[in-house]
Design goal:
By secondary structure, the protein is α+β, with helices and mostly antiparallel strands. It has four domains: about 10-70, Ribonucleotide Reductase Protein R1, domain 1; about 80-160, Phosphorylase Kinase, domain 1, CATH 3.30.200; about 165-350, Transferase(Phosphotransferase) domain 1 (Transferase(Phosphotransferase), domain 1, Orthogonal Bundle), CATH 1.10.510; about 360-575, Serine Threonine Protein Phosphatase 5, Tetratricopeptide repeat, CATH 1.25.40.10. About 55% of the residues lie in helices and about 5% in strands. The chain has helices spanning about 10-20, 25-40, 50-55, 60-70, 120-130, 165-170, 175-195, 235-240, 255-260, 265-280, 290-300, 305-310, 315-325, 335-350, 355-380, 425-440, 440-455, 460-470, 475-490, 495-505, 510-525, 530-540, 545-555, 560-575, 580-590, 595-610, 610-625, 630-645, and strands spanning about 80, 80-90, 95-100, 105-110, 145-150, 150-160, 200, 210, 215-220, 225. The strands form three sheets. A six-stranded antiparallel beta sheet has the order 1-2-3-4-6-5, covered by helices on one side. Helix 10 packs across helix 13, helix 16 (about 425-440) runs antiparallel to helix 17 and helix 23 runs antiparallel to helix 24.
């Protein structure tokens, strides 16, 4: 960058533009300005203020060159054989102009932003080589011509008239399916680049261009490089990036790019594609910050799940985006092709029918109550500290399904009233209540507990026992109130939290159910049913990741929980793991033979892995149980479609 002869006015406008764009802090600029003024007053021969800012590492030389180009307003009207016209855009390495070739064809010509800048010329040459190996058939804007004229280099590309992705999403959102299909195309293009050892490092909506027919192409490899030294033509790009300087655009850069761009591999492009997909659907980027430091801090926390940021997002797509946006590059998809396959698999599946969703919702309400009652029946509320349930053996990883929709059978007897030592009248009433409850005389049991509470209202277990009786009598609001009284008197009474969580779920208070079951887990985290039930509540709340984690833990603690295997299988299928879903659902059938819901959901999973024969067998098994089930014709059509594709 040649700036030693800048006029004072140009220097002043240069600094003003640097501050306006936030390219350097005001404090750092003022410090250098004061140094320049002091030395100038002593009669020292100095470079321009712009040059001194670069020498003091306050401003990157490439950025300084771009600002200077704009300040001076210089732009040659020809380069090589091409007549340069209006500016179309400006990138890290050059300015793109609408131009005309000698035969009159309109093209886009990218010219270095400044002459005599070696780094920029090296970067231009790198972009020429990288794009030269990736053509339009690969999903990239092709290079038609290139050259160097004097101290300026240029690249010639087709003039694409379809605009940029930034144009398309500015102030609006794309439909979910359209956005997923678009990023699938981009991921496949980047997969081809990654297979050749090339990463982009600056994927963003402004660098996605559309042809007149609407095809998306990746542009601007100005920050691209080879990430593998063993591939041909890699030496130049690797050497250029050896300094590890930050390369990319805030909002789309991964954590490893911010920390050290030398570490960047294909996963950084996967991250950027995840951001693009999120932004296209939600209308906002997942990580926000007014500057580099704020953005780096935002990256430390997981983003708001896409399903919460936008409507109509299927669970599988939410899971794909969250994985693409993982902070740890090893936790993301390995490269563009792996991301493309995940998107392709998700786009190929069809959403569950409303009938299926309705049945699952009903199962949630019933299961939360039934399982809670089963716990109460199996272990009466006793006074004093809660007995801790022994830990169940750990299930081997990789097993899998949960029985689809039927809740477990209700217990044969109602909950037993607590057994307490004889000695006072309240305990006697409590004992009689237990005996009546065992004979299914619930009204009589309730009356005995009312009398016991009149005598001993501070005893938490009496409130818990009365809540159980009210629950069996169908008085769910009364049960919730009594469980609340029990908790108020003994905050560590696990069964009261557990039972109230079950009833709240049945009443549709899913946040309340999740909260109560979470507290039960905090007090006693060794009961698989608590994790299973909280997982059900989280499914209904569309917290897919939380639900899946709960069902994994449920089957670890209690491998006999067929419903947990079933639910985990359904969730794995929804999050793009149909093979794992099949394993889980098969295990659920071993625990719950002949279960309609397992057959239905395993058939869907078989469709998703392309196994039409096994899918059809499961449909036939389901039809033998429920011939009129509305879901079966839908799955049959999917099977027929699958056969036709073959």
């Amino acid at each position: 960058m040649t700036t030693a002869t800048l006029s004072p006015d140009t220097d002043r406008r240069f600094v003003a533009l640097v501050l306006e764009r936030g390219l350097a802090s005001r404090e750092a600029v003022e410090s250098v300005r004061n140094e320049w003024s002091l030395r100038s007053s002593r009669g020292e021969k100095l470079p321009s203020l712009a040059q001194l800012l670069c020498e003091r590492n306050v401003l990157d030389r490439r950025l300084a060159a771009q600002v200077l180009q704009e300040v001076r307003g210089r732009r040659a009207n020809r380069i090589g054989r091409y007549e340069l016209g209006a500016e179309l855009g400006r990138g890290a390495m050059g300015t793109v102009c609408r131009s005309r070739a000698p035969d009159g064809t309109e093209v886009a010509v990218k010219v270095t932003n400044v002459a005599s800048d070696r780094d920029m010329l090296v970067g231009f040459d790198r972009e020429r080589r990288l794009l030269g190996s990736l053509g339009e058939t690969d999903g990239f804007v092709p290079i038609l011509d290139s050259g160097i004229e004097g101290e300026r280099a240029f690249l010639v590309m087709p003039l694409l008239t379809g605009g940029t992705l930034r144009d398309r999403i500015q102030g609006r959102k794309l439909p979910v399916k359209e956005a997923a299909e678009l990023v699938f195309q981009l991921a496949r293009a980047m997969g081809r680049a990654h297979a050749r050892g090339i990463i982009h490092r600056d994927l963003k909506p402004a660098n996605i261009l559309f042809t007149e027919k609407g095809r998306a192409l990746v542009a601007d490899l100005g920050l691209g490089k080879h990430f593998r030294h063993d591939l041909g033509d890699a030496e130049g790009s690797v050497a250029f990036s050896v300094t590890g300087a930050i390369a990319g655009t805030t909002g789309y850069m991964s954590a490893e790019q911010l920390e050290d761009s030398k570490r960047a591999g294909p996963a950084c492009d996967v991250f950027a594609l995840g951001v693009i997909l999120y932004e296209a659907v939600a209308g906002v980027r997942p990580f926000l910050g007014p500057g580099m430091m704020a953005y780096a801090e935002a990256l430390r926390s997981p983003p708001l799940p896409l399903r919460q940021a936008a409507r109509g997002v299927p669970a599988w797509l939410d899971a794909v985006v969250l994985r693409a946006l993982a902070r740890d590059p090893k936790a993301r998809f390995a490269d563009g092709e792996e991301l493309a396959r995940a998107l392709e698999d998700g786009l190929a599946r069809k959403p569950l029918s409303p009938v299926t969703l309705g049945v699952v919702g009903l199962a949630l309400a019933l299961l939360l109550v039934t399982v809670a009652l089963a716990i109460a029946t199996a272990r009466p509320v006793a006074p004093g500290p809660e007995a801790q349930a022994p830990a169940a053996p750990i299930a081997p990883p990789g097993h899998g399904p949960v029985s689809p929709v039927g809740p477990p059978a209700a217990p044969a007897t109602p909950p037993a009233a607590p057994v307490t030592p004889a000695g006072d009248a309240a305990s006697e009433y409590e004992q009689r209540a237990m005996e009546k409850a065992q004979r299914n005389e619930l009204a009589g049991a309730l009356s005995e507990l009312d009398r016991a509470l009149e005598l001993e209202p501070r005893r938490a277990t009496l409130w818990g026992a009365r809540g159980e009786v009210k629950e069996h009598m169908g008085n769910l609001e009364g049960a919730v109130a009594d469980y609340g009284e029990a908790i108020a008197r003994d905050e560590k009474l696990v069964s009261a939290w557990r039972l109230r969580g079950g009833v709240r779920g049945a009443m549709g208070d899913l946040p309340g159910a999740e909260s109560d079951l979470t507290r039960a887990i905090e007090l006693d985290g060794r009961t698989g049913l608590d994790f299973q039930n909280r997982g059900f509540a989280r499914v209904k709340m569309e917290n897919v990741r939380g639900a899946l984690a709960d069902e994994y833990r449920a089957v670890e603690l209690d491998p006999t929980l067929g419903t947990a295997w079933m639910l985990r299988g359904m969730l794995r299928d929804d999050t793009g793991d149909p093979a794992g879903a099949i394993a889980d659902l098969t295990h659920a059938l071993e625990l719950k033979p002949g279960n309609l819901e397992v057959f239905v959901h395993r058939a869907t999973a078989y469709v998703n892995v392309g196994d039409a024969e096994r899918a059809l067998r499961d449909v036939e098994s389901a039809a033998a149980i429920a011939p009129s089930d509305d879901r079966l014709p839908v799955i049959r059509r999917e099977i027929e479609d699958l056969k036709k594709k073959r």
